[in-house]
Design brief:
The chain is α+β, with helices and mostly antiparallel strands and about 575 residues long. It has a 6-stranded antiparallel β-sheet with strand order 3-2-1-6-5-4. Strands 8-7-11-10-9 form a 5-stranded antiparallel β-sheet, with helices on one face. The radius of gyration is 52 Å and the shape is rod-shaped. It comes from Pseudonocardia petroleophila.
Length: about 575
């Protein structure tokens, strides 16, 4: 083998530079050309090996990044490093607007450039996006092949870019973005550099899709975890609400359970917006209108859901102190409304059943004449929490009235319909006080007439008749409430009068006292009024000492009240005495 050929092979084996090879083979042009071609092939192979190595390293780096934004940042940094450019950047396709927008940059200094949007077909990047093919230019500002726009040229000029290369990001044939590499000086991009940028773009597209899938998987797992947590929360709520129902709890327990589960304020209102239960510190949530669908709705600064059962609106459940509720929490509130409806419905049905029993008892009492208490009736009352062996007052209500049974029940009595009226029987000995108390509790609307006292266990017919006539007289007189004693002889108007009832209301205690003691307080009263209300002249008529008359009148004051001698009461008592004389043979 010629010495020159051996020398050239030795230089190639020693990885000598092209200059040394040219110098060694100056006298043999053909051998030098072959050696330089081999040297160039070795260099190209090494360059390709380095590029492949860089791509493998890039793929490894991208595989370790799960965040889509992190993937894009890693891509542009790697592109800038591998191609040795001043700037690298990546735009993504916006299918809603039909253009691309800047998503990641490396080496950029212009805020305007970093927020640039590229319409399809505009500029180099727009042409890449439109044709899905790579394009490059050594001098973009002077290159007339591209559609220049003031917005794009202004941003490119502010960044100082001159040479630009762009290649599309494609996934299964679908365009997703453009990867760019650029210089701030004129430079011709070699085909191998364009190919390398294209390989990076392919890696970027795959990595971006993988990162998105990882993110979607993470989101799905988070949603699944949230759903699982919601199921657990719903199960916990179901168990606690079930325990409330099974233990015989009421709306107070439901409000407390819901407030604890959601850490908020809770209020339950009935259909008339009366507050039944509250939970939590702070102001009580206001009653608000809620849709009858049973779905939770926003209401002012809180939340509200209708409480309904069997097509019947029973009330409203209101939440306060909570801004947002997730789906699981919404279901918990709606479940609480359902449980509240069940409890209220049970209570309503129980109240209706109890009221039927009470109404039956009341009807039986009103049908009986007065007399000694019936032990069987007294026992039936005791089972209902009533004391029918003690004095009560009978009240008759006419006109619009709601809640009489509740008011009577609160006082240990009972109430119900009788004929065209509502009748209440409540413990007490002062009919006037009972009339006033009922008027306060029931508000404007009904006319209330009272009579008594009477022991209900012995029958209520007579006292009920007096109360009924009193109510009729009050309606005729335009008054709201009063007792038979209060309206006096005015009770003789309005309905067919019972003189005996009037006499009993005015003089009953005195008549009973005389019957028990064998005294004659009635005769003393007649003599007193006949003598012009003079005890001395009355004593003369009765042939007794004046002190005796005074003592008897003091007893009358105890029996009839201290105001018995006042003008109004005195007139009514005199009328009762006169009517009694007329009715007595």
């Amino acid at each position: 083998m010629p010495q020159t050929a051996l020398d050239l092979l030795r230089l190639l084996a020693e990885d000598a530079s092209a200059d040394r090879i040219s110098e060694q083979a100056q006298q043999h042009p053909e051998a030098r050309e072959l050696a330089l071609r081999i040297r160039a092939g070795i260099d190209e192979h090494r360059r390709r090996e380095a590029e492949l190595s860089a791509l493998v390293e890039t793929a490894r780096d991208l595989a370790s990044v799960a965040d889509p934004r992190g993937v894009l940042d890693a891509i542009v940094r790697r592109a800038r490093s591998l191609l040795g450019t001043d700037v690298a950047y990546l735009t993504l396709f916006d299918p809603d607007l039909g253009d691309t927008f800047m998503r990641a940059t490396a080496g950029s200094v212009s805020a305007r450039f970093q927020t640039l949007r590229l319409p399809l077909g505009a500029g180099l990047g727009g042409l890449v996006a439109q044709t899905r093919r790579p394009y490059w230019t050594a001098d973009y500002p002077a290159d007339e092949r591209y559609d220049h726009t003031p917005e794009i040229d202004g941003a490119v000029g502010e960044e100082g870019l001159v040479a630009i290369c762009g290649t599309p990001l494609l996934v299964d044939g679908d365009f997703v973005g453009v990867l760019f590499a650029s210089h701030r000086a004129r430079r011709v991009f070699r085909r191998d550099e364009v190919a390398l940028l294209g390989s990076l773009a392919a890696l970027a597209a795959v990595s971006l899709v993988q990162a998105r899938r990882v993110a979607e998987t993470a989101d799905a797992l988070a949603a699944l975890s949230a759903a699982h947590a919601g199921i657990e929360q719903a199960a916990t709520a179901h168990d606690r609400f079930s325990q409330v129902v099974l233990s015989g709890g009421g709306v107070d327990d439901i409000a407390a359970t819901l407030g604890e589960l959601l850490a908020c304020r809770v209020a339950v209102f009935d259909v008339d917006d009366h507050c039944l239960a509250t939970y939590g510190d702070g102001p009580v949530p206001r009653p608000v209108a809620a849709e009858g669908s049973g779905r939770l709705t926003r209401a002012g600064d809180g939340w509200a859901v209708a409480v309904s059962a069997a097509g019947q609106r029973l009330g409203t459940l209101v939440l306060g102190g909570v801004d947002e509720l997730d789906r699981g929490q919404v279901r918990t509130v709606e479940r609480a409304a359902m449980v509240t409806a069940l409890v209220l419905l049970f209570r309503l049905r129980a109240a209706e059943s109890d009221q039927r029993v009470r109404t039956d008892l009341l009807t039986e009492l009103l049908a009986r004449d007065g007399g000694e208490p019936d032990p069987a009736l007294v026992e039936r009352g005791r089972l209902l929490g009533l004391q029918l062996g003690v004095p009560h007052v009978v009240a008759v209500c006419r006109g619009p009235v709601r809640g009489l049974a509740v008011v009577a029940g609160d006082g240990g009595g009972l109430a119900g319909p009788h004929g065209d009226d509502l009748v209440a029987v409540v413990p007490g000995t002062d009919p006037s006080a009972v009339a006033a108390a009922l008027a306060r509790r029931l508000g404007d609307g009904p006319t209330i007439g009272t009579a008594g006292p009477v022991v209900p266990g012995g029958g209520l017919r007579e006292v009920h008749e007096r109360a009924r006539r009193t109510a009729g007289a009050l309606v005729a007189l335009g008054r709201r409430a009063g007792s038979a004693r209060e309206i006096g002889f005015a009770g003789l108007v309005g309905e067919p009068a019972d003189v005996g009832d009037y006499v009993h209301d005015m003089l009953g205690p005195v008549v009973d006292y005389d019957a028990r003691r064998g005294s004659d307080l009635l005769g003393t009263l007649e003599a007193y009024f006949a003598a012009g209300a003079s005890p001395r002249r009355a004593a003369g008529e009765l042939h007794v000492h004046v002190n005796t008359v005074t003592q008897r009148l003091e007893r009358v004051a105890v029996l009839l009240g201290a105001d018995w001698s006042g003008p109004a009461r005195a007139l009514e008592i005199q009328l009762a005495l006169h009517l009694r004389r007329l009715r007595t043979p």
